[in-house]
Amino acid sequence: MKCIVTGANGMLGNALCPLLSEKGYEVFATDINISNINIELLDVRDFENVKKYISRVNPDIIFHLAAETDVDKCEIEVKHAYKTNVLGTENIVFNCMSYDIPLVYISTCSVFDGKKREPYNEFDIPNPISVYSKTKHKGEQIVSQLLNRFFIFRAGWMIGGGIKDKKFVAKIIELLKDKKELSVVNDKFGSPTFTNDFSRKIAQVIDTERYGLYHVTNKGVASRFDIACKIVEILNKNEVAVKPISSAAFPLPAPRPDSEASNNFKLQLLEMDDLPHWEKALRDYISKLIVQEN
Q1: Which end of the chain, C or N, has fewer beta carbons within 10 A?
Q2: How many C-alpha atoms does 149 have within 13 Å on its Cβ side?
């Protein structure tokens, strides 16, 4: 089977593409960043090029990962956010319609407003509050309204990337090399989602051909403060003081929901929710990072 992966040079693509290859897919990895020699140039915002590429490859399925995921950039550059995340998705969807190709669309649990006390599930009604979340939700609507064969997978706080990781976990690990005190936000909550676990579950679900919407996050809920404390514990950096601080101390352009915590309710109903707790996944991830660095 042949598959196209857009946004393949990102954090998730780095985990998903090798897994798909292992499962026997002929992977056509694409991105606008082609620093990886195994990735072909494809800008999803360019309809004609998207059409030509899909027609040439004639894939059995498309994995649409490409998106502008910088939440604050989306809030500042609104047209860029909509062109990339909405029109880019439309361009993929229109071609899926033309060639009758099933689509995997990656979304986010930040489509909710964060006011619910319990974790959100697939049957809760989205109410996005940032430009980024609005564009991702609009992408969900385009996919679900225009296609018959689709999977929408919502991720929580994505963690992964190995030595290429530039996000929260990697930043905390780097700070721990010479800092004796860290101040970390403790009033925003989410469900950590490790790219390897997320990719594995995507592959399992698409094999069932049970199309639809799924939440896929690691078990448990955490604040950034909780995650930082766990990193300190795993690395035995007990001499470092981690202090909780309000998000108001770090004003950002884009609003964040108070809670992006998610429940894999659909997977539970299907008896497929075997993702590990985020603490175990974090420990395994950090262990692999240490090995890669050495």
Answers
A1: C
A2: 17
